[in-house]
Write a structure and sequence with these properties.
Elements: E1 20-24, E2 31-33, H1 49-55, H2 57-62, E3 70-75, E4 79-87, H3 97-101, E5 103-108, E6 114-120, E7 134-139, E8 146-151, E9 157-166, E10 171-173, E11 179-187, H4 189-192, H5 203-211, E12 213-219, H6 228-235, E13 241-245, H7 253-270, E14 276-279, H8 290-306, E15 312-315, H9 340-364
Helix pairs in contact: 1-6, 5-9, 6-7, 7-8
Length: about 375
């Protein structure tokens, strides 16, 4: 059944205004965040292709997914048109197609807090091999300057991205983050954003908007395994805080034991002053061996503290979904991947640790 015959709110077709002018999102004054070499030609990426290839085939492929990518700018256009060429769209039964392959638009309120405004939703025909541009238009109620943040898809590649604005409209650099050095996240599919209903609802997105901090999402579905090449790459990135969240993809506790503390040590050796937050998996109840994995992760933290590292912190995954109303079981779509409630709960717990680290760093300046 074609639901759009009965409910126009599900239609994704677009009639463009006559006065629209398109701008390449890679050009000034658009500012990209969460993506490497943002202004370079070719597909948008989260890390350089040669580095990703050296880690694993999974990271090589998934690094083309734009999880955590954002564009910020300011305009007084009465509308915003998004035109994108997507690649490798992930069509998953347990994740909204909007979250995996759509765009989410946020507009700052009077206190400079980005609030969700509208989404650009892919049509059903935008499957894995779709090459035609994805287009969507968002209308504003009046014409006045607005701070815009556009979130990229969580599980899709983006080869081109254009913004359509009203002819003659203001186009200027957007507001910068209060904390401009990004928080660095490394982990699994949960870190990447599966299965948020829209691109801004990963836990990193929630944290970023609440704390006004930039971030880099290096979560890789099924492929966050703490490999040596990845550890060395992470250690070379500039970050305000490093969140180690890769419990899930290690095949077993023995793998974690071989890689987890090694990753911490490699990172700490090159970044002696960066706070490190170590996180264990949230869906601990579904794996009879999760206690062994949690112990390995705790040991990394415990060894670091005993050796004098006072700038390392542990967030217990068993508490990530907890709430006094007993709704822990309602935090996932499949017993593993968080829904929006689950990501919000994760953002509360992990975000509290990130906030403490950022505040302490600012106070010590």
């Amino acid at each position: 059944m074609d639901i759009t015959k009965w409910d126009k709110n599900f239609r994704t077709g677009l009639s463009l205004p006559e006065d629209v002018v398109f701008y390449d999102s890679r050009q000034q004054p658009f500012a990209g965040y969460g993506l490497c070499e943002y202004r370079s030609e070719g597909p948008f990426r989260r890390m350089p292709q040669p580095v990703a290839d050296a880690v694993s085939p999974g990271v090589s492929q998934l690094s083309r997914h734009t999880a955590g990518g954002r564009v910020r700018f300011r305009t007084d256009s009465a509308y915003l048109v998004i035109r994108a060429v997507l690649a490798d769209c992930a069509w998953m039964g347990h994740m909204a197609f909007l979250g995996s392959c759509g765009f989410a638009v946020y507009v700052d309120d009077e206190e400079n807090v980005p609030l969700f405004y509208k989404s650009v939703i892919p049509a059903a025909e935008h499957g894995a091999e779709a090459r035609e541009p994805l287009e969507g238009m968002i209308a504003f109620p009046d014409r006045r300057p607005r701070e815009i943040t556009v979130y990229f898809p969580l599980y899709s590649g983006v080869e081109e991205l254009w913004f359509g604005l009203q002819e003659g409209a203001l186009l200027a650099e957007g507001r910068r983050y209060r904390y401009e050095v990004p928080v660095l996240y490394y982990g699994s599919s949960i870190t990447q954003g599966g299965c948020a209903s829209r691109p801004g609802n990963s836990y990193e997105g929630f944290i970023s908007r609440r704390l006004d901090c930039d971030y880099l999402n290096l979560g890789f579905s099924g492929s966050g395994k703490g490999e040596l090449a990845m550890a060395e790459y992470l250690a070379g990135l500039r970050a305000s805080v490093f969140v180690m969240d890769y419990d899930h993809n290690a095949p077993d506790a023995a793998w974690l034991e071989q890689t987890h503390e090694r990753l911490y040590r490699i990172y700490r050796a090159k970044n002696p002053a960066v706070p490190i937050i170590i996180v264990s998996r949230p869906d601990f109840m579904n794996d009879p061996l999760s206690a062994q994995r949690r112990q390995v992760i705790w040991n990394t933290y415990d060894h670091a503290r005993k050796q004098g590292d006072q700038n390392v912190f542990f967030v217990d995954g068993e508490k990530l979904f907890w709430a006094p109303d007993g709704t822990r079981a309602d935090c996932t779509v499949d017993g593993c991947h968080p829904n929006d409630l689950g990501f919000f709960r994760m953002a509360e717990k992990i975000g509290a640790a990130v906030e403490r680290c950022l505040t302490q760093a600012r106070e010590s300046e």
